[in-house]
Amino acid sequence: MNDLPVTLGDALARARGRIDPVDARILLREASGATTAQLIAFQERALAPDAARCYADWLERRAGGEPVAHILGSREFYGRPFRVSPATLIPRPDTELLVELGLHQLAGRQAPRILDLGTGSGAIAISIALECPQAEVWAVDFSPAALEIAQSNALALGARVQFQSGSWFSSLDAARFDCILSNPPYIAEADPHLSQGDLRFEPLTALTSGADGLNDLCHIIHNAPEHLEDGGWLLLEHGYDQAEAVRALLEDAGFRGVHSWHDLAGIERVSGGHL
Questions:
Q1: Which of 53, 70, 77, 258 is the most exposed place for a label (fewest CB within 10 A)?
Q2: What gap in Å lies between CA 72 and CA 148, rounded to an integer?
Q3: Which of 18, 37, 64 is the last residue of a domain?
Q4: pLDDT tens profile 133-161
Q5: Are residues 105 and 17 in the same domain?
Q6: Residue 186 is assigned to a ligand binding site
Q7: 271 is an annotated ligand-binding site residue
Q8: Which residues contact 202 (CB under 8 A, 6 or more apart)?
């Protein structure tokens, strides 16, 4: 695109048919400083040259498939901005269900201890720490790059989280918790969706887990009882077609009250149970 857009309306028109209109508005809003209402009501408003160049660059990157979160360097989750990078999963609205369920299990406890396994950007752990200040929140990830992002998010948002480097439970010794949450890798290694959309830009190690996508879920379920207090809950996000398998794994491991919860799209997205 050699020439630059000169108005807000021109900028949105140039994105038409190339990227999703919602993405176009988000990019233009960030580049121009205009509000969403202004993008709609004042499309004749002039676009400053620096903003036009920034937007044009972002438009090309998004048209090439790069996620909006990576272009902007952040993504909103549970009403707060979280820094993201190619080293972490992009937080998604469906995962807010995991936070809601975790907070529900902590309600009424004086000083609960909670663990977020595979924390990535830290979105789950930080959200719970901020919503439940009396909780002692731990978060684990094996990726140094992901932990750096998570720690920077905790600092920026003022959350108290104890971060640990390690693979799942390996760095926790005998520590026990009232609730363990995880959004682990759960996509099958040969799933065609891995070569589509935003998934192409996210770390495979945070996405795939064996031929059926259940390897990490099995590992967490098998080892969680050693790190849960009596009555402690394990809550796991999983794929759209894995709820039945995850419930069976939980029951085989001795969990009670096993249940699956639906996300915003009506899909069984989180399953869990208690000891």
A1: 53
A2: 18
A3: 64
A4: 999 999 999 999 999 999 999 999 999 99
A5: no
A6: yes
A7: no
A8: 67, 86, 88, 89, 90
